[in-house]
Amino acid sequence: MGKTESSLSNMALTLITITLLTGAALGYVYKLTEKPVAIAKEKKQQEAIRLVVPEFDNNPAQEMYLIPTSDGDSLKVFPAKKEGKKVGCAIESISHNGFGGDVKIMVGILPDGTIYNYQVLEHKETPGLGTKMTTWFKPSEEDNVSKASGNAFFNWLFGISNNSGGGNTSIVGVDPTKTKLEVSADGGDIDAITAATISSRAFLEAVRKAWYAYTEIVDTHSSATTKEKNSQEGGMQ
Amino acid sequence: MNQWSNFTKGFFKENPVFVMLLGMCPTLGVTSSAINGLGMGLATTFVLVMSNIVVALVKDFIPEKVRIPSFIVIIASFVTIVEMVMQAWLPALFEALGLFIPLIVVNCIVLGRAEAFASKNSVGSSIIDGLGMGLGFSLALTILGTTRELLGSGKAFGLPIFSESYGMLVFVLAPGAFIALGYLIALINKIRRAG
């Protein structure tokens, strides 16, 4: 250290050289990782779509379209079709009211309006509390599926809570016209995650937004599903 | 100092967390589970070794008055590289560590080793120093993470040890980090005195 004299020109030259070299190195690594990062993000989205709707043979990402919501967001809708017939759609929904920021989820809704499955895409909730939302709102038979994707930790938590709680925590298979998608503390039908009511509220808000977006689609886009929805509403009355 | 003691000093005698109390931000922040602690420790080890190598290589060319900014630029570059590589090939770990990866830049262990060791020693010794300190840091974070995970949710590395209902939730949260670290430091001090 200090073999080079600390003169102004030396110092300026050193700093310029170092920043240039590191800048070039970073640019190179960015180029290298650019593609894998994009692929990883796309893979995650594909994986989420695959998990939340029944088997399909089209490319939902290509047929994606946007649905604006009342509070200014646009939700991405990925229609899933098998042999040309609609088997459900995956809706990427977001809530801005999480405990640590935005909660982004993918919700799959079947043509008959029931929720098929969901997947949490992004969140900043408290580890060990709000993070349980990745499995909390699923029924316990989901354990094996989620374990395969490396969520044994939360699954175990979920299994215990389901056995001991006995309340209704699952949103899978529910029909939002019959079940109130709000935490039970707010008068809804879904039990919140223990000690993480704010995260649960945000999660359910995102699910509700996806559901409203879905009702928009069936009202305006497809007559076949509208008919189904009407008959379903008729059944309710 | 021979190379073996140069390597092992980071584990016990000069452990960055338990003895020197350096890098407290990631130590307290990410250790809510054992696996997060280990991941953070290994990411820091990589940055530590790489920045030690580069600092030891360029130490003769850097004027003394601009050495700190130069070191910080070098360290920050390696942290950014770790962040991009992790995002590309280890997205799951990237999600778990999230915010704390950029904070490796301001981890005083990294700058501390660059300033106190790599800028005065050869490349070879600096690599060994970086490895020893980094692995010592990883070990400390893993011990702290395991302790908190076990006490807080009854698990170690995600494997259930006892039922979660006996867990003390506070240990998974921030106050538990301070409590667990305090007792661990007391324990290490006791062993050090006895030894």
TrEMBL record, chain A:
It is found in: Cell membrane. Its EC number is 7.-.-.-. Belongs to the RnfG family. Keywords: Cell membrane, Electron transport, Flavoprotein, FMN, Membrane, Phosphoprotein, Translocase, Transmembrane, Transmembrane helix, Transport. The keyword Zinc-finger does not apply. This is Ion-translocating oxidoreductase complex subunit G. It comes from Thermophagus xiamenensis. Part of a membrane-bound complex that couples electron transfer with translocation of ions across the membrane. GO terms for biological process: electron transport chain. HAMAP family: RsxG_RnfG. The modification FMN phosphoryl threonine is found at residue 197. Residues 98-214 form the FMN-binding domain.
UniProtKB/TrEMBL annotation, chain B:
GO terms for cellular component: endomembrane system; plasma membrane. The keyword rRNA-binding does not apply. The chain crosses the membrane at residues 41-58, 70-90, 96-114, 126-146, 166-188. The keyword Metal-binding does not apply. It is a multi-pass membrane protein. InterPro entries: NqrDE/RnfAE (IPR003667), RnfE (IPR010968). It is found in: Cell membrane; Endomembrane system. Its EC number is 7.-.-.-. Pfam families: Rnf-Nqr. Keywords: Cell membrane, Electron transport, Membrane, Translocase, Transmembrane, Transmembrane helix, Transport. GO terms for biological process: electron transport chain. The complex is composed of six subunits: RnfA, RnfB, RnfC, RnfD, RnfE and RnfG. Belongs to the NqrDE/RnfAE family. HAMAP family: RsxE_RnfE. Part of a membrane-bound complex that couples electron transfer with translocation of ions across the membrane. This is Ion-translocating oxidoreductase complex subunit E.
